[in-house]
Design a protein that fits this description.
4 copies of one chain form a homotetramer. Chain A is mainly alpha-helical. Chain A has helices at about 1-5, 5-30, 35-60, 65-85, 90-109. The radius of gyration of chain A is 14 Å and the shape is elongated. The first copy, chain A, has a single domain, classed as Up-down Bundle (Substrate Binding Domain Of Dnak, Chain:A, Domain 2), CATH 1.20.1270.360. Chains in contact: A-B, A-C, A-D, B-C, B-D, C-D. The interface of A and B includes residues 52 and 69 of A. Chains A, B, C, D: This is Four-helix bundle copper-binding protein. Chains A, B, C, D: InterPro entries: Csp_YhjQ, YHJQ-like.
Chain lengths: ~110, ~110, ~110, ~110
């Protein structure tokens, strides 16, 4: 079944969703919030698509490949933005995003 | 701004989400529900991605093109399934899906 | 059917989702973004619950009353925050939120 | 921070979302799908609100209590329906739902 076949990716998507939502929350609390606007924006994009794909995979979506391809792109973009910032939440988020992008690309290819 | 630029598509996505969710609900009430399982499944896939894209466009997502491409494929698949069934809710849903697929393709290309 | 019974509220939820997502996007582009962080945060909360309730009503959810009660509270809170800011997108968003809160309360009671 | 404070509930919500989406998928594949329509419907309601609350908690929502209260009710209803069916996926889903309802009620109270 789909949810077993994709168990590793579902876990990774879950961790990436968490990391992005936490980074979003933490960025909004930073003093230098003006510098973090692109990070805030991409964190939400990334959390939303990861959560969407997680649900889709666990219900056996017939569109796993197509959704994973888009998700990989969004994770990559979010990771690249987060990587620029020294905040611990940004660095951890970048790591979660790049891991998730890699696993999504494997499914998409 | 993004939400004005995409006002027509946002409206179409909203109508497609509604049609799919209504068709999903109505299929689950049909006597021949066994025949409707693929329709139920695709209605949910389609409602969820249309609602997702609608929100993404209205918040100025940088991934409009990529998301519209996936959305077009899912709308097309849902429309093709709904078209097979004579129920009024299926025929109306097919129409909403094909219209939405067309508009998504325009954005994606 | 549920989606006809709740047609007016579904439309209002859709408009509130749009207004909140647009306000979120616009707040992130403002020079005084530091002043807008609570607005950004509540815009997302409100857009997400309104979009959720819109989908739930259109699929005939058995939990319309309970969800509408929560949605009313979130719309109210978002409206109160937006009302504080002079930006046109905030004032328009406050108006959409208060209208939506009112209609949700009617369903919830 | 919110995502640490609620780490256990976030994990439980994630597991409940998975169980509900898997049960939904499996119900649609059953021969006796006509008997499973209420289960299919509630699985989706429950997966969607659990996924919503999971995201909300991980972004530090100010509405944790109110959302957890609604989520507890929906988990309870889904668990009660799943419990009626002997399918392994239904029994496992019921268990996940009741556990999640309990934890949500703790947060709500």
């Amino acid at each position: 079944m789909s949810h077993e076949q994709h168990a590793d990716l579902i876990k990774t998507l879950h961790e990436c969703t968490e990391a992005c939502n936490h980074c979003y929350d933490a960025c909004l609390r930073e003093d230098d919030v003006k510098m973090m606007t692109e990070c805030i924006r991409l964190d939400r994009e990334c959390a939303d698509i990861c959560s969407f794909l997680e649900q889709a995979l666990s219900r056996g979506t017939p569109f796993a490949t197509e959704l994973a391809e888009v998700c990989a792109k969004i994770c990559e973009a979010c990771g690249n933005e987060c990587k620029k910032h020294d905040h611990d939440h940004c660095q951890k988020c970048a790591e979660a995003c790049f891991k998730c992008a890699d696993e999504c690309r494997k499914l998409a290819s």
